[in-house]
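Before relying on records like the one below, remember that each one covers exactly one chain. Contacts with other chains, cofactors or solvent are not represented anywhere in the record.
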Amino acid sequence: MAGILRGEIRWCDLDPTRGRMQSGRRPVLILSHDVFNDRSGTVIAVALTSQPQRAGFPLTLRLSCPDLPKESWVKISQIRTLSVDRIGEPLTRLSPEEVSTVLDGLNEIVGD
């Protein structure tokens, strides 16, 4: 599937999962670069949830995005490499600044 862009929030089928991984059909935020998405057959994404989160940044980030059907949080700790076959239609796209904030949170979790 071509045309999956960094910063897009798209529907995704995350099943099957194990343990505490986010599951089911839910929105994900695409973090990988457009060229990677087009050429690799996969994307790197983080799951979204509509359930209020106790953990704050860097584990989660509340989104202020009116295009989403519900109030949502990015679960920065729920990063996955997904086949493009799992990725569905786009819902909206975050600004480059919002994507950068998510990437800063991810760096806090996995950085040195």
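Helices lie at 34-40, 96-110.
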